[in-house]
Amino acid sequence: MAPTRPDLALLELLVAVDDHGGLGAAARAISMAQPNASRALARWERRLGMPLLERNTRGSTLTPAGRVLVHWAREVLADVDRLLDAATALRTDQQAELTLAASLTVAECLLPAWLGTFRSTHRDTKIHLQVHNSRQVCDLVAAGRCDVGFIESPDVPAGLRHAPVALDRLIVVVAPEHRWARRRRPLTIAQLAGTPLVVREPGSGTRSTLDAALAEYHRADPLLELGSAAAIRTSVLAGVGPAVVSTLAVGDELARKELVAVAVADLELPRTLRAVWRGSRTLSGPAGALIGQITRGNR
């Protein structure tokens, strides 16, 4: 009697074991609870009548039979990706629509130029743009409510594909009248952490990057939480207080000396802005064309 056909999640788990060197790491990589992963593989081993994993106190590795099957599992998953690519291409040919979700900094500072170039070669493509913070963008992408998203947060949720599209850096800025604008010495990280700041809301990429950088320090409560880089920029210009913002969002104000960048000793906050999507490894259709255009422009 032929073995029961495995579902795709089981094949992804088998490939992940090969890629990550153990069952626990593999389960985390595909967002599956380890007990569920262990039970699923054990059931399939019983149906196949052969072991796929060698289990010991140090972890789990593939048996020779498991290594043979993982090769075919990769082929099956690649075929599924090609099937999804074909379906996307067919849908794109019929609809010629592109739905995007972007975090606020990307939407305000980068997307206008990207979309302007894109529209010059894709005039018939209808573009829909939603603007949210990075966490919400990832939720929309994961739910299949947009073709591709753009985020600033340092971490990408499991299950989403991603590719870098731009580099950015966060800096501390104040109004020229602020006492920090006249400092001759850099701030310490502890001084920054202990100062009430004008910050983005939880879930934004800027807030996540800042919180991760200051996680080991005692933090003052935020002076003000705002929902966009533009609102923070306006507040700092008005003298409300200091903020940590993207260089993309305040480049003009710094050049005109309307804002002052404040150095912080031993603190650099570079970050990579990413496109995120779900499904096949390579985007096709208008979404693939947009990401290809962006990455070519970065070379």
Compact summary:
With 299 residues, the chain is α/β, with parallel strands linked by helices.
Average pLDDT number? 90
Low-confidence stretches: none
Gap from first CA to last CA: 55 Å
β-strand amount:
15-25%
The quaternary organization reads as: single chain
Largest sheet: 7 strands, mixed
CATH class of the largest domain: Alpha Beta
Q: What is the number of helical segments per DSSP (H or I, 4+ residues)?
A: 12
Order of helices and strands: HHHEEHEHHEHEEHEHEHEHEEH
CATH topology of the largest domain: D-Maltodextrin-Binding Protein, domain 2
State the CATH architecture of the largest domain. 3-Layer(aba) Sandwich
Tell me, what's the shape? Answer: flat
- What is the β-strand count? 11
Q: Which class of secondary structure composition applies to the elements?
A: alpha/beta
Count of individual domains: 3
Amount of helix: 40-55%
Task: Set out the fold topology.
Blueprint (H helix, E strand, L loop, with lengths): L7 H13 L2 H7 L4 H15 L4 E4 L2 E4 L1 H32 L1 E6 L1 H6 L1 H11 L4 E6 L2 H9 L5 E4 L9 E14 L14 H5 L4 E3 L4 H9 L10 E3 L2 H9 L5 E4 H9 L4 E3 L7 E8 L7 H13 L2
Parallel strand pairs: 3-4, 3-5, 7-8
Antiparallel strand pairs: 1-2, 5-11, 6-9, 6-10, 6-11
